[in-house]
User: What shape does this take?
Amino acid sequence: MIYYRYQQKGTINLKINKFVAGAVILGAAAQIAINAPAVYADDEKSTLQTLEEEVATLKSNQSSIKIRLANSSEKSLAKAQTLTIQSQLHACEQRLEKAEKDLQNEKDRIAEAERKAEEERKAAEAKAEAEKARKEAIETGKPVAGHNVPNYTPSSNSYPWGQCTWGVKVLAPWVGNYWGNAAQWTASAASAGFRTGSAPVAGSVVVWNDGGYGHVAYVTDVREDGMIKVLEANHGGSADAADPRGIGNYRGWFNPHNGIGSVSYIYPNN
Assistant: This one.
């Protein structure tokens, strides 16, 4: 019985010692974890910083090697030792030349990226301002200076080739098909959900309604005094014989109200 109790006590002591040892190990591990430096994404060096540091280190090495080379000459070291130092200097200078080239390329890349970002920012601002001005013109009916010349390729559509309606459909694919004669376009556009109004806006369609066939054109430029420039087809033709010159700017700046009939505008939904 005594031997049994002794074994039992020893077993308990062994378990206690194992527990204490485990606690010590865990405590030490926790302390190491607490004292270990944290790694954050912000600590990562940029390519530019890395190259700058590499160039600085190589320049420092270059200076040190040059000093060693000068000392070797003064101390008349063995030719083999001098050649070794010269070889080290040559290798260092080659690495430095490459690192400096890489650094300059990285600076140029960053400068180009910043330039493009600035251009995009300015373009976005200009676009936002133009859009704001366009909406204000539509809301107030007051002309706002603007410019909008579309890229286009003459092609067939639902309107007779060469007529003014055909030309505007080529220039502004967003207009509807089968809107009728030019004089009917304002009503047709309104029925199709497009906004119409009295203010000239670059990128809109101007409609002259003379009570007959009428005429339409694409507005490319607007001045604050209400003068406009347009691209149009059949400027010098008729409903029976379209102007063979096709789409063009045949008038320069002009007052749209000096034409025939009433004037209105159709605005794109964007």
User: Anything to note?
Assistant: The beta strands are 146-147, 195-197, 205-209, 215-222, 228-231, 262-267.
